[in-house]
Design goal:
Blueprint lengths: L1 H8 L3 H4 L3 E4 L5 H7 L6 E9 L4 H14 L2 E2 L4 E4 H8 L2 H21 L3 E3 H8 L6 H4 L6 H22 L1 H4 L6 E3 L5 H22 L5 H13 L2 E4 L7 E5 L9
Helix pairs in contact: 4-5, 4-12, 5-6, 9-11, 9-12, 11-12
């Protein structure tokens, strides 16, 4: 994937329009997207990508562990230090607030804090941070867990699109700039799947426990494939081996 970036940088812009990158394994997609050189302005992805291989899926698993290890009292909520560190060291958090996340990790390790309070974390990150207060709050029931995850997805979407504000107003399906707009596909799919799960649970009129809700969420996301589809006449073509059957050589 890294060598590919060097190969593509040597191809003139007019030749990129007639070039295709064929991936034998869909897990290669994200490393390839992160390795594209500056001369590749637009790409067209025509392949499916397993949601379980995405950063968002690993972030969801980290949130599930965080909530499972939480202890809630009348005054405050505390979270197990290993779960807190997993969340703070996740690429999503490091990408949005790397300096504050690194300071918080160092503080927890130096003080040997076993259970980290939400108040301490909010103090470390400051009141201006929008995502940390959403993450480090308890969700004790299935309804609270659903609202908790829903709020986090909405905030992540706002942060991701704000980073790419120049392109966020002109997104078209499958036509992804190389600066990371494809991440919105994962967030959109997760949001749609969350609403589907909510409708399914509501239609049967039965109460589910918080742990059952998280297990259903994880299992549903594990089986999702993100369909990247778009305009085949623009940008560098990125596809899987199966998609080559549709090419007219």
């Amino acid at each position: 994937a890294k060598i590919l970036g060097n190969e593509l940088s040597a191809i003139p812009a007019d030749k990129l329009q007639k070039s295709a990158v064929v991936l034998p394994d869909d897990t290669m997609l994200i490393p390839v997207l992160h390795s594209l050189p500056d001369n590749v302005q637009k790409i067209n992805i025509t392949m499916g990508y397993s949601f379980k291989n995405s950063m968002l899926y690993s972030f969801i698993e980290a949130l599930k562990s965080l909530q499972a290890g939480a202890k809630v009292s009348k005054s405050s909520a505390v979270f197990y230090h290993k779960d807190v560190l997993n969340v703070l060291q996740h690429p999503f958090i490091r990408k949005f607030n790397s300096a504050a996340a690194a300071d918080a990790v160092n503080t927890i390790n130096k003080r040997n804090i076993v259970y980290v309070s939400a108040k301490l974390l909010l103090k470390m990150f400051g009141e201006s941070d929008v995502i940390i207060p959403q993450i480090f709050k308890p969700a004790e029931t299935a309804a609270e867990a659903l609202e908790y995850f829903n709020d986090i997805l909405i905030n992540l979407f706002k942060i991701v699109t704000a980073e790419n504000i120049d392109n966020a107003n002109n997104l078209s399906p499958g036509n992804y700039e190389t600066n990371g707009n494809y991440e919105t596909e994962f967030l959109n799919k997760a949001y749609a799947e969350l609403n589907r799960i909510n409708d399914l649970i509501g239609s049967y009129g039965s109460e589910v426990s918080r742990d059952t809700f998280w297990n259903i969420l994880i299992e549903c996301f594990r089986s999702i494939k993100i369909p990247f589809s778009g305009e085949p006449l623009e940008g560098l073509q990125v596809m899987g081996m199966l998609e080559t059957r549709l090419l007219d050589f």
